[in-house]
Amino acid sequence: MGILDNCTPAQAEAITHADGPLLVVAGAGSGKTRVITRRVACLVERGVPPYRILAITFTNKAAGEMQERVHQLVQKGGVWVSTFHSMCARMLRQFADAIGRRRNFTIYDAADSLSAVKASMKDLEIDTEHWTPSAVQAAISNAKNELIAPDDYESRAASYFERVAAKVYRRYQERLAQNQALDFDDLLLHAARLLSQETAFRDYWQNRFSHVLIDEYQDTNHAQYVIAKELAARHRNICATGDPDQSIYGWRGADIRNILQFVGEYPDAKVVRLEENFRSTKPIIQAAESVIANNTERLDRALYTSREGGSPLRMFAAPDEEAEAEAIVGQIRKLAAQGRRYGDIAIFYRTNFQSRTFEHIFQLLALPYAIVGTVEFYNRREIKDILAYLRVLVNDADDVSMSRIINVPPRGIGEQTVAALSRWAAGQRVPLIEAIRRSPEIPDLAGRAGKAVDKLRSLLDALAQVRGPVAKIIDQAIKRSGYIDWHKASRDESSEERAENLGELVTAAARYDERTPDGTLEAYLEEVALVSQIDEYQDGDNRVTLMTVHAAKGLEFPVVFITGLEEGLFPHQNAMESPSGVEEERRLFYVAITRAKDELFISHAGARMRFGLITPAMPSRFVEEIPPDVIEHLPLFGQAPPPAGREDERPPVLRKPRREEAPEAEEPAPPEKGIEAGQKVRHPTFGLGEVVELTGAGSRRTALVRFKGIGIKRLLLEYAKLEKV
DNA sequence: AAAACATACATTTTT
DNA sequence: TGTATGTTTT
User: What is the mean pLDDT of residues A520-545?
Assistant: First the structure.
């Protein structure tokens, strides 16, 4: 096996051969992932049985990549590479009794959890106007991350809000137990508790692993810290890697002290510092270093690069967010003309809502793009509906899922019927599905309602009989429930898209079946519950990637645009009140900068539409923290006098059509293009398609085109090079 | 049960 | 401003 080329021989020796506690403090772009992967491979090579090695990564995507890479290096599988959440789920299923659950427990996502919080508040008749469910949910989540149980929380509650939250917390946990469910935080909470308090559980897992490695250690919260510490307690072969300057999850309980105090915790720890950056050019590193130097809470560390040359950072100042997006897209086309691949380019923003402006313009120009993690696939309504059927099949105590599908698609089980069923179930202290099974015994169910419930019962029975791969079960659920016909019948605009999504769900499940030949419905649902936004991102598609800075962690791109650098947005308003909040925002900016390999563009808008109001904004304080000699200010876009002529003839006419200009549909279609509805066309990116509709006139002439396998796109004729076929 | 209409709320960041 | 959810109407 080759030598590590991104560190000194002594460091390489420590990384590959040292046992005992090891801390790798790795700066951005220093090849940390390679280091930890190599360590795992070397352990295997030294004869450590692969199944005794546990590597914990931050996302499932990273886990998959590491697993594959280790396999390539040593031609051996069996190393357990996982995220904290997936790992805990697996551990808890094996010891479900210890937490008072059946092993087929359901994992609730944030939305499921929120509805359980709402229901708990309703149970307790707590006013949801005054105390918002999401605030209570956040309080509960924080308590769990600190491993605080409801009783402890109540006894230390200092404010009225906390006393209310404590009551909801207790009721919420009861509800989860009734539904045989755990939320994300429970996975960590229970694993941490069992590891520190339950001998059988602790002994089993401590013996199971001889070596434990944790990546992105700076972003571990208290529960994760306890889990890592306990898992490694027996053999003390704990290797933590991370970068305190890249700690960006403080708001969800990540505690930067976990990494800062690692050596205090393990005085015999070896420390390896990787300070050479192999990713970025000098100006980019200079900017990053100069910005992060303004933080106080950090380990003493410098980052340097040997890469010579490199262009300076470039900055746009735009009047508003649309002009900002136009300028960036203009710059991207310039780069593309110079031979840059779209897949080399990424656009980052602080908040998800900023993606809309970009999405609009990319669609208009038919430039290839991919947004990472907007409305996640598995959060779409139709997907959640079908998954709810599966969840009920796996865990029939799951009332949240049962209520979700009880009348979806509509089958005549109205509000009154649901209320009667729920009342009966509550009275008997049994799950809702039991009321459906035994509906003939329920007095309130008159003939018509009773029949409707009978039909639901036979549907559920029929689905429970289906055997075979997950894809088949999903397919049956979609068809037999009548879900697909229901959508076909409604001429809703979104029905076609929903049908496509359901098709995609079956396809994805088929991939799962292929990948996991011994997979179960239960394991599939678990995987689906724990996918992260970034897991869905695939590079190699040659598209411009759009994402939040948080999602960009761990990635790199030759060209990066960091947008919306305005006071109140980046740094975000809610973080600006405390110095530590600003420091975390600054680390976030540092992460963004250090994603760039070759070229970095930053931009801000003088005003931005927020809540429907045009809100002015000052440039971010972070911009001034970049040394002036590594920044070049590009001319303000659109400031050059427009070429003579009417406004809509000015080169990139990218403004979205305003509402008041709507009557454009009535204008006669100019015949000169010769493109009309029904015309078959070819597009350089999307391929063959058929024109569905034409609207607008002149430079705003727009075609709706249906492309095979891609869907309907809205294209400006002036820019989309449509070729008649 | 669908459609039409009205209102509320959002914008941190996510496993 | 746009979407998501709730309410009233057919």
Answer: 81
In this structure, are residues A328 and A347 in contact, taking their beta carbons and an 8 Å threshold?
yes
Least confident of A229-238, A501-510, A602-611, A665-674: A665-674
What per-residue confidence (pLDDT) applies to A359? Answer: 87
**Is strand B within 7 Å of residue A351 (CB)?**
yes
A33 is catalytic: yes
Report residue A144's pLDDT band, with 50, 70 and 90 as the boundaries.
Answer: very high
DSSP A653-685: --PPPPGGGGGGGGSPPPGGG---TT-EEEETT
A486 CB contact with strand B at below 7 Å: yes
Task: Return the closest-CA partner of residue A266 out of A221, A216, A219, A212.
Answer: A212
User: What's the CA A669/C1' B15 distance, rounded, in angstroms?
Assistant: 51
Catalytic residue among A112, A183, A185, A215: A215
A325-334 pLDDT, tens digit each? 999 999 999 9
pTM above 0.85, yes or no: no
Is the distance from CB of A168 to CB of A125 less than 8 angstroms?
Answer: no
Indicate the residue type of A140: I
Catalytic, A162? Answer no
β-strand partners of A560: A346, A600
Label residues A176-199 b or e (16+ Cβ within 10 Å = b): beebbbbbbbbbbbbbbbbbeeee
Residue at A9: amino acid letter? P
Q: Which bases in strand C are touched by protein, i.e. have an atom under 7 Å from a CB? A: 1-2, 4
Q: Is the CB of A572 under 7 A from strand B?
A: yes
- Note if A246 is an active site residue: yes
